[in-house]
């Protein structure tokens, strides 16, 4: 893979990640069913990729690895469920931008968990995200679907931040594809008891959207990121990854006529800038960290 094709693959992967909310809205199923189906199809896609990709050896897992994978799988399940609840309640744009608040949570959690001093540039990052979220919210009314949906999206961002920190702790030992596959198995098992009674009611067209969500927005997108990181710098990959909300909101605007207001666009721009800044400050220089973060989206 040449640098040009690798960069193209990164953008395709970011587009596929951005379509997550779109497919979630197209599927007329509950968030539990969507997440279960996504995880099940993702396991198949990731297993296929791991089988035919070169240099994707499997690491023998120790007890501590299993505990971390179990925890990260539970966090991933919560992250996805809360995100798709937000999509159903408030739409793709608000859900995507609310979730994109995760860099601010990462800064705060790293300071609390690892007792690290929060630097001035990290305070600026948190401020950018906070102001962006205020601008994205149409009105602070808990009875409003937009506000409720944004709160679910922010919860999704918090869980994603916890998940990213967990993944980074084990990214040095466990290959990204292996970790992603194991996490998706845990997600499917977590949601199976809730989703099973509803599976017979899912329409064929909805299985198509869920299948595309699992195969392309999870398996293929993550595989493209992993393959591209062999050629592209991690910082470049992290910046491209930050374009995901742009792709998602653009497609939602074209398909669902979700017209963002000028205020929402300004708020979204601040949040995206915060994501780029975050990638340059921390994990953007670590390919394993970037791969781990992509695996959990």
Automatic annotation (TrEMBL):
Pfam families: EamA. This is DMT family transporter. Keywords: Cell membrane, Membrane, Transmembrane, Transmembrane helix. It is found in: Cell membrane. Its main location: membrane. The chain crosses the membrane at residues 34-54, 66-85, 91-114, 123-140, 146-165, 177-195, 207-231, 238-256, 262-279. GO terms for cellular component: plasma membrane. It comes from the Bacteria. It comes from Pseudomonas koreensis. Residues 10-136, 148-279 form the EamA domain. It is a multi-pass membrane protein.
């Amino acid at each position: 893979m040449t640098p040009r094709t690798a960069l193209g693959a990164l953008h395709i992967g970011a587009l596929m990640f951005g379509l997550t909310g779109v497919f979630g809205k197209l599927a007329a199923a509950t968030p539990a069913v969507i997440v279960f189906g996504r995880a099940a199809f993702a396991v198949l896609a990731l297993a296929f990729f791991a089988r035919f990709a070169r240099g994707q050896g499997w690491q023998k897992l120790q007890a501590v690895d299993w505990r971390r994978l179990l925890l990260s799988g539970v966090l991933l399940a919560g992250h996805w469920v809360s995100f798709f609840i937000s999509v159903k309640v408030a739409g793709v744009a608000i859900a995507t931008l609310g979730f994109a608040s995760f860099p601010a949570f990462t800064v705060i959690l790293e300071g609390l968990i690892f007792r690290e001093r929060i630097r001035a540039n990290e305070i600026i990052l948190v401020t950018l995200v906070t102001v962006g979220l205020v601008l994205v919210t149409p009105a602070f009314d808990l009875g409003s679907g937009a506000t409720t949906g944004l709160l679910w999206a922010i919860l999704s961002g918090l869980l994603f931040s916890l998940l990213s920190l967990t993944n980074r702790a084990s990214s040095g030992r466990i290959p990204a594809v292996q970790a992603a596959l194991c996490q998706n198995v845990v997600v499917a098992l977590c949601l199976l008891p809730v989703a099973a009674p509803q599976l017979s009611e899912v329409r064929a067209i909805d299985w198509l959207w869920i299948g595309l969500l699992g195969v392309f927005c999870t398996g293929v997108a993550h595989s493209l990121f992993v393959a591209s990181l062999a050629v592209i710098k991690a910082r470049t990959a992290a910046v491209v990854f930050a374009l995901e909300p742009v792709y998602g909101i653009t497609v939602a605007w074209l398909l669902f006529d979700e017209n963002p207001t000028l205020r929402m666009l300004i708020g979204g721009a601040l949040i995206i800038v915060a994501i780029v800044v975050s990638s340059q400050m921390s994990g953007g220089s670590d390919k394993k960290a970037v791969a781990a973060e992509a695996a959990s989206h």
